[in-house]
Design a protein that fits this description.
This protein is an alpha+beta fold. It contains three helices and five strands, in the order ββαβββαα. The termini are far apart.
Length: 105
């Protein structure tokens, strides 16, 4: 996956943590290269609770890594993320499976 701002491709990292960062933009997970991280106008989504941009998006949920708030991603966000459309009925099956695994009522 390339950097969402400049299109640079991530290369195999040397030992240690990757200098690339993850973020959420328009409710889709994006990567940000080290050069673009220096910009202050990244236009990333923010947490509605603490205003942090340290968000991750997974399985239709957006989680804030700063305060732990989890919310459902907008259903129309998948249309702009490049993900293929979900077949009818599959989202209900996935939601039921998640509820079982995560112990939700």
């Amino acid at each position: 996956m390339p950097c969402y701002r400049c299109g640079a491709r991530q290369t195999d990292p040397v030992r240690g943590a990757s200098p690339w960062k993850r973020g959420v933009r328009q409710e889709a997970q994006v990567l940000i290269c080290p050069d673009c991280q220096r910009r202050h106008d990244l236009d990333l989504d923010t947490c509605g609770t603490c205003q942090s941009t340290a968000l991750i998006c997974r399985l239709g949920e957006v989680e804030c890594r700063s305060c732990g708030t989890v919310r459902l991603a907008r259903a129309d966000a998948f249309a702009c993320s490049g993900a293929p459309p979900v077949p009818p009925g599959l989202s209900a099956e996935v939601e039921a499976a998640l509820n079982r695994v995560l112990g939700r009522a």
